[in-house]
Design goal:
Layout (H helix, E strand, L loop, with lengths): L15 H12 L1 H8 L3 E5 L3 H10 L4 E5 L3
Parallel strand pairs: 1-2
């Protein structure tokens, strides 16, 4: 936590109703269709630099980096 270049972000003030509404949207085929069109990719931890580069260039919208090899 004390290393340089480390950002720790959290969620302040969220309420259960926010999650409930999100689940409602995601389970509704009509309202969730736009979300399913977003391109996301999974990367291994060893591919972290590639993941960041792909997001920076717009190749993917969301890069999920998994710590497992």
């Amino acid at each position: 936590m004390n290393k340089k270049h480390l950002d720790v972000r959290g969620c302040w003030g969220s309420d259960f109703s926010h999650f409930y509404r999100g689940v409602q949207i995601m389970t509704d085929p009509v309202r969730s269709e736009a979300w399913s069109l977003l391109k996301l990719e999974r990367y291994d931890l060893s591919q972290a630099n590639e993941a960041l580069a792909d997001v920076a260039t717009g190749k993917v919208i969301k890069a999920i980096i998994t710590p497992q090899a």
